[in-house]
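Now produce a polypeptide, keeping tokens residue-aligned:
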Amino acid sequence: MGQSETEDVVINDRYALRGLIASGAMAEVFLAQDVRLGREVAVKVFRPDRANDPKAIERFRREARAAAGLSHPNLVTVYDWGVDQGQAFLVTQYVAGSDLRRVIRQRGVLPEREALHLAADIAAGLDVAHRHGIVHRDVKPRNVLVDENGNALLADFGIAAPSEDIAGEDAVYGTALYVSPEQAQGLAVDGRADLYSLGALLYELLTGSPPFAGETTAEVAAQHINATVVAPRQIRPGLSDAAERAVLRALEKDPARRFRDAAEMRQALLAAAAPGDSTVRDRVDQTRRMPVIGVRRSFAVPHVSRRLAVSAAAALVLAMIALPLLAGAHQASVPDIAGQSVADAQAAVAAAGLTLAVDEQATEDTPAGVVVSQDPAAGSHVGSGATIHALVSSGLTVPDLGGRQCAEARAELEQAGWSVKPVRWRVANVADFGKVVGQDPPAGAAVPRKGEISVQVAGPVRPC
């Protein structure tokens, strides 16, 4: 829904939608007005085409349940959730600002202290979640919001769960670029898995790229499990030793070698940001830091002599002239890679002096190995060497034919490029005659391209 389409939409007779904030594969997020309390909120609305997906609905419910009992300045507050006219929704605190992925895209590598403070904010939020027994399991830039004052707030507890509930197949979920080794292997995880993901996120803030990249999700996950990370100071020599130690400790393969908990990691990050000065660390804890782009900054200016002040002002003018020129000299234009194969996208990105990071997701209409979308967008200007994130199709999602009249489903799918082959009928009640009661490949499976779906039909009737 666009801006004009949302003006008259009210969810649950309470949340009046005002405009689209973000859009994803599973849901759209809108700025809304809570008409009862008179405050702005963010409303995540489940996409209608996912309304019958029980796993997705469960994710909504899990996000609401996991975050409901958490309250902290560095966590996005969940206010409400429910289903209105068959459409699931989740209501959260509205954060005026941007997500951290967009900040990275706009600004590239961040100043060391700012990166450390943002990571310390995230660690503070994780500490609260972990003390409530909740492991986030998907700490990444897109799930971190940065408000107008430069504070980081952790969001999206959609795949979070109590640590004792996380093992086996469920434990694999997450984002490959930031996933911990134990999570990539489907092992049981605890809060230290989130610390690894935070370390990977901080690595990107400080160096411009995640610690590992590859052409497929499996390739990246394997590197998290087995490969040795390049030390940050090999990429950015000016980093402090303390900052590098904090990152590398968080990225230890063995959870026992990482920080004991989020509180310990936060203290290490703050200490690295203000080495040897406890008063500065205390003050940083109570006040806010450099805000994101677009927010006015104010600085405390110490008393200086008139001559020194004039010299500093002349220097400032020169810097204001020179910095944009220098920044422009190290900018690169992002190529358009949507619709390309991974190999072609890799070549185009490399030719532009940039790095490609790939994540995979099954799609409804894009064959396997083809780029579905990219971030940042084509034509954007980013710092030389920056990472371009590409969402690549892992294959097409097989449609669900269960319960549909075979003849009707067959005609519709063949028009869309699939073929339906009835293989046998199965004894069933008269009311179900002619309906599909089984299919191969199963609904939701990922296949490289559109092909044949074998179906079983309720009978005895002649197959469609």
Observations:
- Residues 331-397 form a domain with the Trypsin Inhibitor V; Chain A fold (CATH 3.30.10.20).
- Residues 163-173, 277-313, 315-329 have pLDDT under 50 and may be disordered.
